[in-house]
Design goal:
Elements: E1 3-5, E2 11-13, E3 25-31, E4 36-43, H1 45-51, H2 58-75, E5 82-90, E6 94-102, E7 106-113, H3 115-119, H4 128-132, E8 135-143, E9 149-155, H5 161-173, E10 177-186, E11 189-199, H6 201-204, H7 209-224, H8 228-231, H9 238-246, E12 251-253, E13 257-258, E14 260-261, H10 267-274, H11 279-285, E15 286-287, E16 290-294, E17 301-304, H12 306-312
Parallel strand pairs: 7-14
Antiparallel strand pairs: 1-2, 2-12, 3-4, 3-12, 3-13, 4-11, 5-6, 5-8, 6-7, 8-9, 10-11, 15-16, 16-17
Length: about 325
């Protein structure tokens, strides 16, 4: 691949001689001729591994895939050490969608839904307002090294999850944001991807309002030309996709973040949570001498011994002097 070195680790690529296609990554980039930064996300095996164990109805799986893709796009725009969570909650057949991503690139996602109510709508994935109903979408950042938590909440408003997210940025962050994503199955495997653009406010102040509007309008038009088939093509490199869209703008790409499936559940953590309960509550959860717990994210089942859980709460406290 022909490359020209650029400052601070960035590289500029031409459209010839790309390496083999990338997958399961977040690719940061910047458009050099405008004050725009962005991210491209490609999800393949990781997404299929997350959705596979659940056997969701098609519309629910589609919505979970969209939520995971959006979480990857949004979280990668932030500087944080911890966990970013994107969650919707509504009164529709799909009561909750949630996806989170650690700063190391570990992603997971799941949904809670009413099977009978979902079945009434068939497999139409374009009925978001009906599936989610009235509710809210929340963006949460939990910093590992800090006790403070950042959370933004906005009403579920729009015909798609993308529209809901863009509504949030317009209403709460006042940052021009453009997003386009695609979700589908190829050869029986789930794939997803998308591109997100934002106008960088700290640099945009230097430009006139008319220039900013012109740059933004042109970039949104270019983003609108992106085809679902391009985003979902496993043989198409993310950098080639970006250059197809924005080659006249000058695409500068940076080091990508590799994504992995990362559920944080295990018997030890579940036991610690249960140990905070009173003995009567632990007994209530017991059935046939065991406690059965199910992780909604990875669909794993855990069996715990009630006595072992109780013993956690009976550790001797240090004697007062």
């Amino acid at each position: 691949m022909a490359r020209r070195s650029a400052p601070d680790g960035a590289i500029n690529d031409n459209a010839d001689g790309f390496d083999k296609a990338d997958d399961n990554i977040v690719q940061p980039f910047q458009l050099e001729k405008t004050q725009l930064r962005g991210r491209a996300v490609r999800l393949g095996a990781v997404l299929d591994e997350i959705l596979g164990p659940h056997d969701y109805p098609l519309p629910v799986a589609h919505l979970v895939a969209e939520t995971i893709t959006l979480a990857a796009l949004l979280s990668s725009m932030l500087k944080y050490e911890g966990i970013f969570t994107l969650q919707t909650k509504g009164d529709g057949p799909v009561g909750m969608l949630v996806a989170d991503m650690t700063s190391k690139g570990e992603v997971r996602g799941c949904a809670s839904f009413d099977k009978e109510r979902v079945a009434k709508f068939g497999n139409d994935t374009d009925l978001l307002p009906l599936f989610l109903g009235k509710g809210y979408i929340a963006f949460t950042v939990d910093q590992m090294a800090k006790t403070d938590r950042y959370q933004g909440i906005v009403e579920l408003k729009g015909k798609s999850l993308v529209e809901c997210v863009q509504h949030y940025f317009t209403q709460s962050e006042q940052i021009d944001t453009g997003i386009k994503i695609a979700v589908g199955r190829k050869d029986g495997k789930w794939r997803a991807g998308g591109v997100m653009l934002q106008l960088m406010p700290e640099e945009a102040k230097e430009d006139s309002l008319s220039v900013r509007k012109e740059d933004w309008s042109r970039s949104m038009t270019l983003l609108g030309t992106m085809k679902d088939s391009e985003v979902l093509d496993p043989a198409l490199h993310s950098r080639e996709l970006l250059l197809r869209l924005f080659h006249e703008e000058g695409v500068r790409v940076y080091k990508p973040l590799h994504l992995t499936k990362g559920c944080r559940c295990d018997s030890e953590k579940i036991g610690k949570v249960l140990a905070t309960l009173a003995d009567d509550d632990i007994e209530y959860l017991s059935e046939s001498g065991t406690i059965q717990m199910h992780c909604e994210f990875c669909s794993r089942d855990f069996t715990l011994d009630p006595d072992t859980v109780k013993n956690r709460t009976k550790k001797k406290k240090p004697k007062k002097k």
